[in-house]
């Protein structure tokens, strides 16, 4: 069975404040279970993986490729 996490545990995992986790949950920005104040570890970890933000180097490379095409 999937481990259920509390607001505090999710906040620690995401390195944000507990209030941020509560806000994100109420806005539907992070996956939550039907159980109030509980989150699926697997769902949160999958969500983290989907939040990839390109590095400055990746952005610069993409911009350079686009610039060369023009």
Automatic annotation (TrEMBL):
Domain Helix-turn-helix: 4-51
Pfam family, one: HTH_17
Coiled-coil regions, chain positions: none
InterPro entries: DNA-bd_dom_put_sf, HTH_17, SinI_DNA-bd
Molecular-function annotations in GO: DNA binding
Name of the protein in question: Helix-turn-helix domain-containing protein
Species of the source: Xanthocytophaga flava
């Amino acid at each position: 069975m999937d481990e259920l996490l509390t607001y505090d545990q999710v906040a620690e995992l995401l390195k944000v404040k507990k209030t941020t986790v509560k806000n994100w949950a109420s806005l539907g920005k992070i996956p939550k279970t039907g159980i109030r104040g509980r989150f699926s570890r697997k769902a949160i970890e999958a969500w983290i993986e989907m939040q990839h933000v390109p590095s400055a180097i990746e952005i610069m490379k993409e911009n350079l490729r686009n610039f060369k095409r023009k």
